[in-house]
Amino acid sequence: MSFTDHILLAPLIRGLWINAAHESSDTGCPRVVVPSAGADGTIPAQAVFADLSAAWTGDGLDEAVAAKALMDAYAAWETGVAQKGKQPAGLTQPSCARIKTPSGEAVYWIDRDLGSARKRNETFDASPLVLSGTNTVPSNSDSGIAAPGASAVNRSLVVKNKIVLVTGGAQGFGEEIVRGLAASGALVFIADLNQAGAEKLAETLNSAEKRIAAVAVPVNVSDEASVEALFKTIAETAGGLDLCVSNAGVLKAASVLEQDVGSFKFVTDINYTGFFLMAKHCGRLLRRQNRTAPGWKTDIIQINSKSGLEGSNKNGAYAGGKFGAIGLVESFALELVEYGIKVNAICPGNFLDGPLWSDPEKGLFVQYLNTGKVPGAKTVADVRAFYEAKVPMKRGCTGADVMRAIYYVVEQEYETGQAIPVTGGQVMLH
Ligand SMILES: NC(=O)c1ccc[n+]([C@@H]2O[C@H](COP(=O)([O-])OP(=O)(O)OC[C@H]3O[C@@H](n4cnc5c(N)ncnc54)[C@H](O)[C@@H]3O)[C@@H](O)[C@H]2O)c1
Predict the structure, then answer these.
(1) Cβ distance 102 to 56 under 8 Å?
(2) Residues near ligand 1 with C-beta < 6 Å?
(3) In percent, how much of the chain has pLDDT > 90?
(4) Is residue 96 within 8 Å of residue 1, measured between CB atoms?
(5) What is the pLDDT of residues 292-338, one digit of tens each?
(6) How far is CA 364 from CA 120, 173, 311, in A?
């Protein structure tokens, strides 16, 4: 099997297993799929077998044909289990699939979390996955969603066992989101230009959570080849994705009368074009997963800004890219709804405790103090007080505020193409 084939097949397999788990209301509904080298002779007899040779045409993989062949193979496994009478039908799922392709055979191991799926691969444990229910509840609610009126802590169950990706996850808002999602039971891919920072955070979380809670992957969101490689890595590592948080962003504030075009393009390439590249390659993977899991909703969330909702003085490159990205969100939402993909933006206010503002050397507080942007300010505390006073709720936005919005967006299955302000009342709808 080549690297390319896993990105094609693993999401189809993952979708199929998610879809089948729906039928049992299993609380660990999302699945992790681990592709393996799978030497012949080491493939367990219990594996679901699908011959997808006929699904490859001159143009590549015919995903619809592959999806049908996979569904038929899965049904044959279920029939076999039911006929043997050893397990009540519907209470188990296969944990291993053997796939034949024109370029050879591959084996995929399936379980609820990455650690368990990897262990099956290492030990060739193909015993079926035991599910936890029997009723049919075809909705993402199977992942353990809280009842109406439940607390935010319970609401966080909406991401439990899901596979999520956060770009720019090594620091700032991204780090807060990564920490929140990992604490809620998700498997988090931390994708950042700062690979060392992403790896350090992943190690910290894995030891705190006592499981594989996070995996670091390098990416430059403004480089298409890098973004494409990111999604290949995700498919190769875990099979697919449920939530993509496109958070990486930069700010270079400057007057329209002074800003050089290089600096304008730098900001635009990351904040605007970078989001397009993320949605393009994420959308392709999620569409593939949707072919075998048509009822499963997935999410692309762009971390936008209050500056995507109203202009920002001497900060046009940033505000323009953020405004533009809301146009992308609305347009992508219209197109991708067909594949069960919701696309929304979250627009936070200033994260005054984050490094962008508070870094003692390069932070905006120090910069604004030194450039005299805040009239009469003599200390960093004066600059901070000035920005806090602009917010009706008198404080900056926090990671916890953004996490509540993320849980809402994921939980809300009946909304897409929205830009949700999280600004303490600083920006209101008009
Ligand atoms: N900080 C705020 O006050 C604030 C307010 C509203 C919205 N936002 C938005 O939140 C997001 C995060 O902002 P932050 O303040 O936490 O930023 P930050 O500068 O603290 O962190 C940004 C992270 O993104 C990474 N990154 C930068 N360029 C990248 C690229 N090309 N590819 C991959 N990773 C890259 C950095 O290495 C860093 O880890 C941005 O989209 C920003 O516009 C921030």
Answers:
(1) yes
(2) 167-168, 170-174, 192-194, 219-222, 247-250, 270, 303, 305, 348, 350-351, 354-357
(3) 77
(4) no
(5) 999 999 999 999 999 999 999 999 999 999 999 999 999 999 999 99
(6) 49, 15, 18
